[in-house]
Amino acid sequence: MPALVAFESGFTFDLARDVAEIIEVLAIAVICIGVLVSIIGGLVDWFRSNADDAFETFKRYIARGLLIGLDLLIAADVIKTVTLEGTIESAVVLGLLVLIRTFLSWSLVLEVEGVWPWRRSRQAPDEA
Predict the structure, then answer these.
(1) Radius of gyration of the chain (CA)
(2) Percentage of residues in the chain with pLDDT exceeding 70?
(3) Could you tell me which of 15, 40, 71, 85 has the fewest CB atoms within 10 Å of its CB?
(4) Contacts 24+ apart (CB under 8 A), 27-35
(5) Do 62 and 54 contact (CB within 8 A), yes or no?
């Protein structure tokens, strides 16, 4: 594979591209494992207790997997933008991706916990 960016010393950013791709694959794996764990956890709770508990377990586990996956995808995008695509357009696209993924993360936290992420610390300990 040809180098994306090369300097006079011969240094290339192939490693950065490879690391970003590995992180993206890891993010996909984390999301898939999260879905699998949430299904298994939901089924176990369904058989042990009731459908309401099963749904809450499913929702909590899948949200955690998605949140970790989204964080990993953001990390991969940052690596690609900083090392491989050092243009204004790529920085703007990265900013938009981070905004969208941040909104998704906040929405997931709100769905699972019933409170916005920045209001969690204001909750009384007995309400958590």
Answers:
(1) 19
(2) 84
(3) 15
(4) 27/68, 27/69, 27/70, 27/72, 27/73, 27/76, 28/69, 30/65, 30/68, 30/69, 30/72, 31/65, 31/66, 31/69, 33/65, 34/61, 34/62, 34/64, 34/65, 34/66, 34/68, 34/69, 35/62, 35/65
(5) no
11-29 pLDDT, tens digit each: 467 888 899 999 999 999 9
Q: Are 51 and 43 in contact (CB under 8 A)?
A: no
The one-letter amino acid code at 34 reads G
In total, the chain counts a number of residues equal to 128
Give the span between the Cα atoms of 94 and 78, in whole angstroms. Answer: 7
Spatial separation of the C-alpha atoms in residues 16 and 85, rounded to whole Å: 11
Q: What is the pLDDT of residues 96-122, one digit of tens each?
A: 988 998 888 888 888 877 887 777 766
Which among 11, 108, 28, 6 is positioned nearest to 76, based on CA atoms? 28
